[in-house]
Design a protein that fits this description.
The protein has 614 residues and is α+β, with helices and mostly antiparallel strands. The protein folds into four domains: 184 residues, no CATH class; 64 residues, no CATH class; 179 residues, no CATH class; 110 residues, no CATH class. The protein is built from 20 helices and twelve strands. Strands 1, 2, 6, 7 and 8 form a five-stranded antiparallel β-sheet that branches. A three-stranded antiparallel β-sheet has the order 3-5-4. Helix 11 packs parallel to helix 19, helix 12 runs antiparallel to helix 13 and helix 15 runs antiparallel to helix 18.
Length: 614
């Protein structure tokens, strides 16, 4: 649900605004409307500094030299590093220098490779030779002609299986026309190239040691600096949006706080003798949104936030989203064994025993989804790609609960799981349309939503009537009367009264266009839910394929074959688990964001509650 907000308008002397904002930050409950982008040069500079510190934190958090071949040397040097000045600038400067050094090392390595065949030589001594010109060549052995040695003064310097390196010596003023092109003269000797590489590698170790020292000794300092700069920026942006009054002597500040904090906040404001106006927030005020849900639904608030927060007069979709995402994820995974793995991993992630940064704070959600996968996967009859209905140690009474096999509908056989997926889709969409009719009526009035109620009556009423008729609850005559009544009332709402007061012909045209959109849209939306069946089936079949492949390798009389058997199972099921998790996250999210939110009228254009705080 959306937590109720109280709107506060504070009237302050212009000189008191800064201190009052600091006090609001210390309380951490009042959300003062402010920009999320720079509004002037000062705020732009503050944004840039914060971005720099945030980048620094990201770099240092990802830093890991434990597998670096020079780790021991880096660790040793880091103990003597002295950091002066801004830690963020030191970090970014070190990273930039490290990139430069890596580029220099690549050039130096390439240079060493080029000069190594020429060996050691004294460049200055060669320059001292007067009247003679030394030229350098490198050709393949196929190109080299021994007859050249009869016509030119050639000295072979080096050769390998493919190439020959040689020089020619000739008078400077003599006519010279060698049949192949020259090579560039070696710029340095091998020793000089090796010394350059050693120098660069030493500096690389020094820079890495500096970064390691920053991570191990200054991370808390940098994080506190980031929090302080962010708080300063928040306070500045809040001060910028104040409204001047009384020729600049007064500032008017507007903010919102949860109703549950009203008593404590007003008592402190009264003690401070601050002039303020308090009133209940309404939708037109566009107050920030703070969600309040039970422990289960709260786990899924992050998914609601991915789409967008509701506006104040809207509804919180999280309770419904949580239940269906919980179910959809499990159906897409479709494997009880994988659910057990997710439970174990989620618990380890939540307790920081395993800590993958991209899943920070999601351990409980992962474990919860694992529970649903374990339960639903059992009823779907699959665990680690094994068909549970064929397992001898599972009692027949439990196998009878598994939703496997086919069901006959209209003389044709369909998979029970596919039919179940479609029925869930129909229910999900009908629920969305019901919520839309109720909430839109509450927000905008019944008169503006007659068409919405007409469609709901037609679709939901039609489904209920058909179901009752098929079960024999309604007689043939009663069914006909019910269908006629539903059809007439729905047609009036959809085609005649969809916009009261408008030209009837325009209403009819609008109704026909709406009919086309609904007919094509609803059908496509319902068919989208087949993915719940298809993904679960695909994951189970792939897991089973790896099991069969392992058994083929294992054979009937295994000895050493146990090792490849285990490797195949580990590789196959880890790959299948990762692929299944990706699909089980993306596709239920799509069913929620596209099919469900579209039919429920959810917009998600609200602003998240973000109070000023230190």
């Amino acid at each position: 649900m959306i937590e109720k907000m109280t709107k506060y308008s504070f009237i302050l002397l212009s000189g008191e605004t800064e201190e009052f904002l600091k006090w609001l930050q210390s309380k951490g409950v009042v959300d003062v409307s402010r920009s999320v982008k720079p509004v002037d040069e000062k705020s732009s500079q503050m944004f840039d500094k914060i971005a720099s510190v945030r980048k620094t934190i990201s770099i240092l958090e990802a830093l890991d030299y434990s597998k670096d071949p020079d780790y021991d040397r880096i660790r040793e040097v880091s103990g003597s590093v002295v950091i002066e000045g801004c830690k963020a600038k030191n970090t970014l400067g070190a990273v930039s220098r490290l990139d430069e050094l890596k580029s220099e090392l690549s050039d130096a390595t390439r240079q060493l490779k080029d000069v190594t065949p020429w060996g050691e030589y004294d460049k200055e001594a060669l320059k001292a030779v007067k009247g003679l010109k030394i030229r350098y060549y490198c050709v393949s052995k196929k190109v080299y002609d021994p007859e050249w040695e009869n016509d030119w003064a050639i000295v072979k310097v080096n050769e390998d299986n493919k190439s020959i390196w040689f020089v020619t010596v000739a008078p400077e003023d003599a006519e010279y026309n060698f049949p192949v092109s020259e090579c560039p003269e070696p710029s340095v000797s091998v020793k000089q190239a090796e010394e350059r590489i050693a120098s660069i590698e030493k500096e690389i170790v020094s820079v890495k040691a500096k970064l390691l020292h920053l991570k191990e000794h200054y991370m808390d300092h940098i994080r506190k600096g980031y929090a302080r700069k962010s708080a300063d920026l928040d306070r500045y942006l809040a001060s910028v949006v104040t409204t001047d009054a009384a020729e600049g002597y007064l500032n008017i500040l507007t903010g919102f706080a949860p109703v549950e904090n009203e008593k404590e906040l007003t008592e402190e404001l009264d003690r401070m003798d601050v002039l303020y106006i308090k009133e209940e927030a309404i939708e037109q005020d566009n107050p920030p949104i703070k969600l309040k849900n039970n422990r289960f639904s709260k786990l899924f608030e992050c998914l609601t936030g991915m789409y967008g927060m509701p506006v104040y007069g809207e509804w919180d979709p999280t309770p419904v989203l949580s239940i269906f995402f919980f179910l959809f994820f499990a159906m897409c995974m479709g494997d009880a064994g994988y659910g057990l793995i997710l439970i174990i991993y989620g618990i380890l992630q939540d307790r920081k025993i395993i800590n993958i940064s991209m899943f920070d704070g999601l351990g409980k959600l992962i474990a919860t989804l694992g529970v649903s996968t374990l339960v639903v996967g059992f009823f779907l009859g699959t665990a680690f790609g094994v068909d549970l209905t064929t397992v001898s140690w599972i009692p027949d009474s439990l196998k009878g609960l598994m939703l496997t096999g086919d069901i006959t509908v209209g003389g044709s056989s369909y998979s029970i799981q596919m039919v179940l997926a479609l029925l869930i889709g129909v229910f999900h969409i009908c629920l969305a349309m019901t919520i839309k009719a109720l909430l839109y009526t509450k927000r905008f009035g019944f008169k503006e939503n007659i068409s919405t109620w007409g469609w709901l009556l037609l679709i939901l009423g039609g489904i209920v009537t058909a179901s009752l008729a098929m079960m024999g609850v309604l007689s043939e005559g009663a069914t006909k009367i019910t269908v006629i009544v539903i059809g007439v009332i729905s047609a009036l709402g959809i085609y005649i009264f969809n916009k009261p007061g408008r030209n009837p012909l325009i209403n009819i045209g609008a109704g026909l266009w709406d009919t086309y959109n609904m007919a094509t849209g609803i059908l496509g939306d319902v068919l989208s839910y087949i993915r719940l069946y298809a993904l679960g089936l695909a994951g189970g079949m792939l897991g089973g394929a790896f099991n069969n492949l392992g058994e083929m390798v294992l054979g009937t009389d295994p000895t050493w074959q146990w090792l490849p058997y285990v490797l195949i199972l580990l590789f196959g099921h880890v790959l299948n688990l990762l692929m299944s998790c990706l699909g089980a996250f993306v596709h239920p999210l799509r069913l929620t964001f596209v099919e469900y939110f579209k039919n429920s009228g959810y917009e998600g254009k609200g602003m998240k509650y973000n109070p000023l705080k230190n």
